[in-house]
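Example 4.3 (complexes with small molecules)
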Amino acid sequence: MRILITGCSGQIGTELTVALRNIYGNDQVIASDIKEAAPEVMQSGPFEILDVLDKEAMRQIIRKYQVEGIFHMAAILSAVGEGNPMLAWNVNMNGLINVLELGREEKVERILCPSSIAAFGPETPVDNTPQETVLRPTTMYGITKVAGELLCNYYVQKYGMDVRGLRYPGIISNATLPGGGTTDYAVAIYYDAVKFGKYECFVTAETTLPMMYMPDCLKATIDLFQAPKANLKRFVDYNVGSMSFDAATLAASIKRYIPEFEVAYKPDFHQAIADSWPNSVDDSAAREEWGWNPEYDLDAMTRDMLQAVKIKVEKGEY
Ligand code: SER
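Answer. The structure with serine bound is encoded below.
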């Protein structure tokens, strides 16, 4: 299958491009972004500069490479979105509608567009958040994610298209730094622990959020994309859980390897965003319908993250 990825320079896009090229072949996976990507993406296969708001440019790329599947990863995340709500609305909604309309017009076989725990809001039950529940987010990012789920579902129902999506928790990784999310503290903490032995955390010690390590994120994304359509009952909004911890527990897991590590908690505007999201999610639909089963727990992730980040710091890359 020939695949187009939007947002290939982002935290998930970078590693997803490499993972998909390993599965489908380097030439079969066309990476695109508004800016150049990491060397592992630029050097391993086709790359196109693409602004997802430019529908005709996207059409040309779909035609040029005879694209059959799209992973739509380009988006503005929660914290940046609160700084510039109209940018979040424009990129997240108009980018998505361009992908869906082109999918319909150019007969793209399958589209995957992620949603997020940000689709939930303060009125949603916080523990083991059900699959079907209140969706009244208070961030512009969350609003675009709920509207995006509804839109994707509309294209499934009205046009019989194959559009799939999952609600990512906070994603922790070490290849590309995340850009402008609220859960990003859980990435930054590892870098600062290794480099400085201390970290200033923008949420409180007790702030609990659902999180996932990148290898599990890639597995969830690709497994859902590849799942037999006949097995799916819902398509666009699967909860996917993996681990759930508060900031103090994350710090303690790092302290086990770096005993002198210190965290100062200085909550800022991120706190209200984090407080509006769940602690953990019920992902039984994903487990039943497409066999979702995460591998990493907090300690396994911490060991892996510290090793990888140490190498980056030693090379002077952070
Ligand atoms: N990681 C995202 C954010 O914090 C949530 O989907 O914005």
